[in-house]
Sequence to fold (194 residues):
Amino acid sequence: MRTLRCTVCGHVWDCNIARPACPYCVAKQWALAPEMVTPKHDPRKLPSASTQFRSTVSYDMLDQPDAYFQYIAESGTAFYSHTPRHRDFSYACGVPPHLQGGSAIPVGQSMPTHSMDSYTVVQAFGPSAHIFAQDEAKIRADLEAGELVFLPNCSVDGCELRSVPGSGFCVLHHDPPLAVEVIDEGSDGTATNS
Fold:
């Protein structure tokens, strides 16, 4: 694992290959998305029936969205989705015990029937980003079916980091660089770049 510092906001994070961008910048982008929770996934719009399966986020997520966005950005995995409804970049993340999962609403039902244990953010790197509750088993099934695929590695030989969506390069090799590697962090909290 590498420790990186974002060249945009200065945030320092432990980068693993699952996340292609600064989690603080990603969470901030989601917080600014005009319809991060669409009416279809908003529990305040219930009861209402639909001709399609859908899910709602938790009321807790609506009350403290920044905590959820930050957790998903820091702990989630970025994918490219080949599903018919969401052909774009997404993040998926299980819900930890200190946060609440959303709920599932089957076709024709007007209220949730069971809880869900994950969240997915679709169109994750664009202005139309939005979130919905998901079952982790569905995410695994989509991975196995090839409907979700991990982002490609950076195109620089030997680099194991994932590419920033749409660029072919990771945050270190992007032009201009979106992060620098932190070599040593002193006891005073200052970091030395590579």
Summary: The CA atoms of residues 24 and 185 lie 19 Å apart. The chain has four helices and twelve strands.
